[in-house]
């Protein structure tokens, strides 16, 4: 059997940890449990991470980098109109929640709810991730206005902030009621009331 490379081992620990934390939360997920599921020795953890907090920050950075790529792929898809790119983003969220039976939600949102009030380092890092997402939405909405797909009188920054905060809240509510209905309702309100366009 060929041994895993250094990066592969680190990535395996991060991915395993992200999966467990997405289900159980950061505080309830122990290092030993992560390593057991990953099938790597405890020494490997401290070779890559100085502490659990350091590990948590690495998970945030890794997830954000991967998600940024997915977000850019959706929002920069020139084969779709700008409005359809936003619809595609929401559709991806519906698919993710359906696949997990509304149990996991957004990892960054989950960590924000759990850790932002407890640890300033986590709060700052999570806020940076959310701010970067919000800027992408703002750019897409502004481009839609330039293209004439959305009314120019709408404040793109306000709309992007509402999109991010409302969508994250809808995802949280979907977990509580075990249904994507709150997400569906948010999307309807966002398009019709915020952007002033049909959801059809």
From TrEMBL:
Keyword ATP-binding: no
Keywords: DNA-binding, Transcription, Transcription regulation
Keyword Iron-sulfur: no
Pfam family, any one: TetR_C_13
InterPro entries per record: Homeodomain-like_sf, HTH_TetR, Tet_transcr_reg_TetR-rel_C_sf, TetR_C
GO molecular function, one term: DNA binding
Domain HTH tetR-type residue range list: 7-67
Name assigned to this protein: HTH tetR-type domain-containing protein
